[in-house]
Amino acid sequence: MFWSDRVDAPAPAPPLADTVEADLAVIGGGFTGLWAALQALEDQPGLRVVVLEAEQCGFGASSRNGGFCDSSLTHGLANGISHWPDEIETLVRLGRENLAGLEASLERHRIDADYQRCAEIDVAIEPWHLESLAEDIEDFRGLGEDVDLLDAEQMRARVDSPTYLGGFIRRNDMALIDPARLVWGLRSTVEGRGAAVYENTPAHAIKRQNNRIDIRTPSGRVRADHAVMATNAYPGPVRRPRRYTIPVYDHVLMTEPLSAEQMASVGWAEREGLGDVSNMFHYYRLSADDRILWGGYDATYHFNNGIGDSHDQSDKTHSQLAEDFFQTFPQLEGLSFSHRWGGPIGTTTRFTATWGTKFDGQLAWVAGYTGLGVGASRFGARVALDLVYGRQTERTDLKMVRKHPVPFPPEPARWVGVQLTRRAIQRCDRRGGKRGPWLNLLDRFGVGFDS
Ligand SMILES: Cc1cc2nc3c(=O)[nH]c(=O)nc-3n(C[C@H](O)[C@H](O)[C@H](O)COP(=O)(O)OP(=O)(O)OC[C@H]3O[C@@H](n4cnc5c(N)ncnc54)[C@H](O)[C@@H]3O)c2cc1C
After folding, report:
1. Is CB count within 10 Å lower at the N or C end of the chain?
2. Is 250 in the pocket of ligand 1 (CB under 6 A)?
3. Which of 178-187, 351-360, 435-444 has the lowest mean pLDDT?
4. Whose alpha carbon is nearest atom 35 of ligand 1?
5. Is this prediction's pTM over 0.85?
6. Does the pLDDT of residue 275 top 80, yes or no?
7. Using CA atoms, how far apart are residues 355 and 401, in angstroms rounded to an integer?
């Protein structure tokens, strides 16, 4: 993976080989787990925090993503409005506060993660995309977003592709980040504040004994007063999230760095984050060294919540992504891809995170941000801490936090449902955005499948 396989990656932390006592144990060393550790240490300096990571911190989605760091906590505004129309203003405000808090944390702890505030553009490449973009604009403006529609000429003056028919630019509440550097920075910050991080240390089993949480790993054990489980798409030792979250594989290509001439042929002077409006959408951005990260399109679910290294590479999806890339940027013909990878996104039927507790609230878990967890995972961790420390806050009062999404059915219905939905989504894209009976039915129940 491009982000994590760089020469300045930190040395691995040692595995746990003993029994340790902790005030707070965190299971999973992705963004959620590391933000939980950091925010807990900021709330209570000196807290004994232990982080258990099955592989290396950032092994999961947190080092594999596109680095789009959006303020949205609800997988976009439209999804938030459709599920929580009464709370949307609060959700938008909390999302902005979360992004500002993330930015302040990076400054405070001097984490250099190439964080850049920038605009985001949804690009129209089919006529129906233009209509769909125009529909949303008043909702965005009503909630204080600085948004505008771009015609084809304005769009191509920013980034040049013959496929562009227009765009929707959002100038606030978005940033791009180097995800692995964020993971590394968070890890070293929590270690600097006294947390013990153990890598190659999967939590195998968990129980409560004498009012303490007892976590077993292959060669050690943690006894803690409280715990946060932050394994997202991966099955952790608490089973409950598996009802609500499934792992969906999303794939990415990274090009070689573009030459100055290649950059000039594309434009992209303001280095916006881009995505198209199709249901099976692509997202793309520039890296600090002028590569293009190009991901998305297909979202693959493997039977029985299948997860593992064998799903990281998909010749079919990666070839399709390459074909789509050169259709978008024919002027870059001949450019090669230096990296390709995939990773599991934890999704729920409502596309946002869900939270829960166990052991009378001594443990909290959070999972399911879908494809917008880079920023939202900090909020997810904050809420998980509210829950384990029994704090009633504006956050814990949110319906999004109090209520679970509709669960996925058990297998084999789970797999069949996902395949039917994927096919219906493909048909919808082919038929100019007409949703068809299956998607209309799901819409009526407020459920769906997305990445
Ligand atoms: C290809 C891809 C592109 C994406 N692009 C974007 C994007 O551009 N913007 C955006 O906002 N979001 C994006 N996302 C989603 C985003 O990356 C995630 O929502 C976010 O990283 C979730 O963080 P997390 O810490 O909850 O989960 P993860 O990063 O998956 O962390 C979970 C960790 O738990 C560990 N673990 C699992 N089991 C155990 C165990 N038993 N014991 C100990 N540790 C365990 C895993 O090894 C892993 O490190 C993308 C995701 C993918 C896969």
Report:
1. N
2. yes
3. 435-444
4. 28
5. yes
6. yes
7. 6
